[in-house]
Amino acid sequence: MSAPQGSDLPFLPFALPEIGEEEIAEVVDTLRSGWVTTGPKARKFEQAFTEFLGEPEIECIAVNSATAGLHLALEAIGVGPGDEVITTTHTFTATAEVVRYLGADVVLVDIDPATLNIDPALIEAAITPRTKAIVPVHYAGLAADMLTILDIARRHGLRVVEDAAHALPTTLEKELIGTMGSDATVFSFYANKTMTTGEGGMLVTRNPKIAARAKVMRLHGINRDAFDRFTAKVPSWYYEIVAPGFKYNLTDIAAALGLHQLKRLKGFQARREQIAQAYHEAFADLPLILPPQPVEGDTHSWHLYVLRLADECAVERDAFIEQMFARGIGCSVHYIPLHLQPYWRERYQLTPEQFPHSQKAYERTFSIPLYTAMTDADVQRVIAAVREIALR
Ligand SMILES: *Cc1c(COP(=O)(O)O)cnc(C)c1O
């Protein structure tokens, strides 16, 4: 066996954030300001996010993770014991675990094999009298079929909370995800997402009741407005506890990063798009199924670039990833479906046969590096490695 190609080059990680001098200066400014926890910069970040979404009536609530945001959104719509929440098996466990935090049950359904997004027909088939909400995930950054999902929700009186951890910025029918008309949408600013605050998330909603409840539950169940209603002047030390809330606030240190990452988001997306198109062109003739493109005029965030081995591809998925690693290139798998994870499998007695499309996608897919900090040479190196392995 010959030595692996390119193994003399430094390792190319699967994902890396792009943090610039402006982010660093803003963090330093925050540290010097004396206000390091939630304060003026978190507020400014929320306002900037509302501006980014382009609709002043949308409230943005900064939280310390998307997981926290999903938990708050489901709590605010009243998910509780006895309820069922329908979501996709082809996701990260955070999407589903928040339902269990609230004592409700998760109903997992299979995906559309073309998009790897939740299949709306299977959502409709899974509805029972206990169903309370649907949680679609915009897998890899391609919008889920929200028009059909919102229509199902309307017809059955269900709530919709979007897990938009991958979908910043993503559009459907030229509308940004976050403005589609669901009850709430949650974005993630985890280190490997399309913009980052280290850890962080944003819950966005047009519903003032959801916003008010999420704000109270984000910080210990503290409500200052309860006092405001009766007294003109609130002493700065006074607060009321109206519920056993959580500790989910975003720090100003994190928000300082977010302010500048958000400014750069359009540019980030353009670079991701450029890399995705380079991959599409370079891989068109290989025994690989390439990720679906959005319809003309819509935006894919390209959080992930997921390759699928065609049936005629001679290499197995695990071997493909191993050979990429041997060439110094990190890859990943999105996802090990929830129906294969011990907790979910055992709690709901799930089998692979119930999720044939997700199961097949799991066995045949892997994600290759796609991030703005990649150089053109990095992109060419990934292309060369994929071509060489696939054509063996
Ligand atoms: C990253 C991710 C989350 C969780 O985001 P955090 O900000 O890390 O809590 C939830 N759902 C999906 C699909 C994700 O990829």
UniProtKB/TrEMBL annotation:
Domain of life according to the entry: Bacteria
UniProt keyword Oxidoreductase, yes or no: no
Xref: InterPro entries: DegT/StrS_aminotransferase (IPR000653), PyrdxlP-dep_Trfase (IPR015424), PyrdxlP-dep_Trfase_major (IPR015421), PyrdxlP-dep_Trfase_small (IPR015422)
Record bears the keyword Manganese: no
Protein keywords: Aminotransferase, Pyridoxal phosphate, Transferase
Family designation: Belongs to the DegT/DnrJ/EryC1 family.
Protein name from the UniProt record: DegT/DnrJ/EryC1/StrS family aminotransferase
Organism of this sequence: Roseateles subflavus
